[in-house]
Design a protein that fits this description.
seven-stranded mixed β-sheet, 12 helices, single chain, globular, alpha+beta, 324 residues
């Protein structure tokens, strides 16, 4: 009996060690993005949102349907931030793919996943084409889980623990008020995926604009990965608003990029990850202009997915204010 107990403890310790080794590790050099409130930046963002609400009042746009976070990164030693409802949990649609990108790049950098042409294709399609199928595959790789039939409670608990790997990674860096453990679908989730959502959607993905803006700023500033993997992420996020448009809801043309097109700012640069559903329309963008502006702007909107001008209106007012 004693030997059996000792053997059980050893097995438990071994399994714990294996699970710990598979966790997504925070870079040793990581330093939390420190931001400071900036009254003038807050006034600018408040005005941009308020004036946009007034402009779209006939569309019944309400303040509780908009969230925005602005981070000025021109001076890496003095990062300034402003937010409007920036800590509200909102269904992120495809913006969640930005979080999965950061997670898989960390695993690749640490050698915890095998880099293959198929993995590279999947990451590309998840971010560049915003493919839901590619995202499903990438999340399987990150968490070592897979879709399938519902499981009994004990087996499901073990499965869900593995699926929560991305959440633990971001929690370890101080990210709060988010949930990043669900696949994205064109239609609906079934089987264990619906079980993971708690059937009525209580455990759907959720992000805040504050967390999203922080992540994008940390990617841009090279805080989350080494030089090579940071470059890989930025290459995937790079958008060209002046290239030929590809379909509806093109990430380069129909979100923040609209502003650069309207102002004919061919010398500006844009990196972004958009997200949209029948009820939501979001964009997480990093913009650099020829006159020195460098900022992250994340805007989430709800219940007005078909109104394409809300996001660009806020972005235009922010851009104009920063360039004065």
């Amino acid at each position: 009996m004693v030997l059996r107990c000792i053997f059980g403890v050893l097995i438990a310790c071994l399994l714990t060690g294996v699970l710990a080794a598979q966790e997504i590790a925070v870079p040793r050099s990581y330093k939390h993005l420190e931001t400071k409130p900036a009254p003038e930046l807050q006034t600018l963002l408040d005005r941009a949102v308020t004036e946009t609400l007034d402009k779209f009042a006939s569309n019944s746009l309400k303040r509780e349907e908009v969230a925005a976070t602005l981070i000025d990164v021109r001076d890496p030693n003095s990062i300034r931030m402003a937010e409007v409802r920036g800590n509200e949990r909102i269904y992120p649609a495809s913006v969640i793919k930005l979080f999965y990108l950061a997670a898989i790049e960390r695993q690749m950098e640490d050698g915890k996943v095998r880099v293959t042409p198929e993995l590279t294709r999947g990451i590309h399609d998840m971010i560049v084409d915003s493919s839901n199928e590619a995202t499903q595959y990438i999340l399987d790789v990150i968490t070592e889980t897979s879709s399938g039939a519902e499981l009994p409670p004990k087996e499901f608990e073990a499965w869900q623990y593995k699926r929560d790997r991305v959440n633990r990674f971001f929690a370890s860096m101080g990210y709060t008020n988010i949930n990043a453990d669900q696949k994205t679908f064109c239609e609906d989730a079934y089987g264990i995926e619906q079980q993971s959502r708690h059937y009525n959607g209580e455990n759907r993905n959720m992000l805040t604009t504050n967390a999203t803006a922080r992540l994008l700023a940390e990617i841009v500033l090279g805080k989350l990965a080494d030089k090579d993997h940071t470059s890989q992420m930025l290459t995937l996020l790079k958008r060209d608003p002046f290239a030929p448009k590809v379909g509806d809801d093109d990430q380069a043309h129909d979100f923040t990029g609209t502003v650069l097109i309207d102002r004919k700012m061919t010398d500006a640069k844009l990196w972004s990850k958009a997200g949209w559903t029948s009820k939501t329309r979001h964009d997480a963008a990093y913009v650099e202009t020829a006159d020195g502006a460098k900022f992250v702007l994340v805007v989430f909107t709800e219940n007005h997915a078909n109104e394409k001008n809300i996001l660009p209106t806020i972005a235009a007012k922010v851009l104009d204010g920063l360039r004065k």
